Amino acid sequence: MPDSVEPHASQRRIEVIAYSVDHFDRKLVASVAEASAMVAAARERGATARVWIDIEGVPLGEALVDLGALIPLHPMAAELLRNGAARALVEDFGGHLLATMVYMHHSHGAKAADGADGSSHVSEVIDFIFDDRVLVTIQERPGDCFDGVRERLALGSGQVRAPGAAFLFSLLGRAICDSYLPILEKTARRIDRIEDALAERPDRAILVRIHHLRTRLLELRRQLIPLQDSIAMLLLRRPPADPGSTAREVDISMRSLLDELAELRDALDFQRDEVQRLTDLYLNSVSNRLNDVMRILAIISTLFMPLSFLASLYGMNFDRERGRWNMPELGWEYGYLFVLGLMSVVAVGLTIFFWRKGWLAEPTRSRRRGVDGLTLDVVEFVGLTGPSGRGAGSRRRRAVAKGAVRARGASTP
């Protein structure tokens, strides 16, 4: 976590939780040096005593000065903390482990990027330093998702106090993973709303919303996948541990957290596929709309082609006095009405021809009348909107389509 922002003094909060199987003590202290005294007292109580120091809103440079009294830091670990990790990770430095995770939570004071509601997501880096008995968490600002873990430690439910600090780290890591679930649920609802909007009328604003969703999911993946890969590599590099040893407990805790991250990654991958499907649906909808527009323009052009031919034909100025075959219709009493009638017959005939071919049908109108997508597909398959004849085959196809519509309506509550 880089020491780039100096928190306000009122935001400083250092909490020490010392516990064992039969003991629990929770206290707020004023400085890291005071917390180190409680750590020393806990170490004197025995090997089963554990301590969790939660440092919130304290400048990292100030915290690192006294952090060595809590856990002897490796120089590379101290440098990594001072500069800030480029991504989420877990590193083993022999005497202790260093982990960096990203906590995502809602911020109701900001407008969401896609304009869906009045809240956005804020990411906060949380650093973990722990050995077999002491765990230190360093947060940028007060407020986290660890209240459930604190309550479990206070109640002592199950065997939550018996394992070492690695087990506590896995509990806190799972709490951070659980903080992603409301974001994924909210994203799923936005995907449903966008899909409904695409079914009504796709426009460019929907494509912008899809882009924002894709960007958000990519951001979540960037926070999780490096951590998952880092834990997997750590477990591969570690030698086999003896049953009951501290190293064995670390391995079990890391595998538990790795399973949690794998489930979260599967959910992210599924939503990423859903967003990609929305993009394909948008492109298909736009393409279908373009095809409908081109179809209507082609029909209009086809209707006016014979009319234009007739108009241009009778617009030729041949001299009728030069010969009796030079447009004798121009001398008829009802010649003008005859040409207008001929144009009307041609236009109506072409319109009827196009309608019987099904080229004037608009699928969206069928949906607005209550025929759902499956029924429309059945109707199109049997040929109601396609070529229809007058024989028994056409009547049989119509009967099949009407039966499918009735069956679909009866099965729908």
Q: How would you sum up this structure, described in words?
A:
Strands 2-1-3-7-6-5-4 form a seven-stranded mixed beta sheet, sandwiched between helices. It folds into two domains: 9-284, 2-Layer Sandwich (Beta Polymerase, domain 2); 361-413, no CATH class. It is 57% helix and 13% strand. The longest helix is centred in the C-terminal third of the chain and has 68 residues, at 246-313. The protein has helices at 32-45, 60-67, 75-83, 147-155, 165-178, 181-200, 204-237, 246-313, 335-357, 363-368, 373-382, 392-411, and strands at 13-20, 23-29, 50-56, 89-92, 97-107, 120-130, 134-139. It is rod-shaped, with a radius of gyration of 37 Å. Mean pLDDT is 77; it is low at 1-9, 109-118 and 363-394. Helix 7 runs antiparallel to helix 8 (246-313), helix 8 packs antiparallel against helix 9 (335-357) and helix 11 runs antiparallel to helix 12 (392-411). The two termini are 55 Å apart. By secondary structure, it is α+β, with helices and mostly antiparallel strands.
Characteristic key phrases:
single chain, 413 residues, alpha+beta, 2 domains
